[in-house]
Amino acid sequence: MTTWKKLKTDLSISPEDMNAIELEKDLIRTMVAIREEKGLTQSQLAEMCNGAYEEKSVNFDLL
Asked: pLDDT tens, 20-50?
């Protein structure tokens, strides 16, 4: 089994790319935490977002 450290080395991920990956991971963790705090399922959140997109704006206060 390949570890994340080995994969990073094998892929030669630049420090800039690694920073972007870490930022995305942090964003995803935050979004999941907020969704769970609100007691929403992934499907419910998707429905809320789809409705907001249809209105041409996203209201993050829904979260």
From this structure: 999 999 999 998 999 999 999 988 888 888 7
Taking CA 44 as the corner, what is the angle to CA 43 and CA 47, rounded to the nearest 5 degrees? Answer: 85
Q: Where are the alpha helices (DSSP H) in 1-63?
A: 4-11, 15-37, 42-54
Which amino acid type is present at position 22? E
Distance (Å, whole) CA 25 – CA 9: 19
Q: Which two tokens stand for residue 62?
A: 């829904």
| The pair of three-digit structure tokens given for residue 13, joined into one six-digit string | 């991920």
Of the candidates 22, 4, 62, 56, which has an alpha carbon nearest to the alpha carbon of residue 38?
62
Share of the chain above pLDDT 70, in %: 79
3-state helix, strand, coil in the chain (%, to 5): 75, 0, 25
